[in-house]
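Per reviewer request, we include the raw input and output of the structure prediction for the construct analysed in the revised manuscript.
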Amino acid sequence: MRHSNLKERAATDTGKTEDSNRLIVVLCGPGGVGKGTVARLLVAKDQSLWLSRSWTTRSRREGESEDSYYFVSKSEFMSMADRGGFMEWAQFLGNLYGTPWPNELPTNSDILLEIDVQGATQIRKRFPDSLVILLLAPSRDEQRKRLQERGDSKEHIELRMKEADAEIASAKKFADAIVINDSLDRAVSEISAIINNRRLSCSKINTQ
């Protein structure tokens, strides 16, 4: 089923409301699998997808776009969290990450969340009928290479790689689909097909 009032939906036992009309798509995975790039290509391809912009307390990487995140202080982040301003939030490797509740959404749009596995776990519990897609690199070597190319420090890469196995094992327990990002075009096309299949399924349910 699809949803409009997210806070109302989250407050129910089933995560559903009578006037529901939006699909929540969660793209998750460990660092270095290409979530950000895939998410941007998905919304460029599908105008019915709206990409949420997360908050974080980490520093912006060299060359990273300013609109990749809302880069905030820890006090700003915790103030938002204390007000219940996040759909999900978690600490990862010493930094805080969170998805704010959307204030205004384009008409007839579905929501795309590009988040880590901790966040995806929270979203699945809060919104049981969300569509969770686990994105993976084709190999550990490729994942490490991508982390290096985006400018992560050697120490941070090792920490990321160490966490990756546990993240993947956890996400596999609840993900609706697993996509290997060995080719950007192929991965985006596969995820688009998964999303459209869920939309079709939701439409059939809503017309019954």
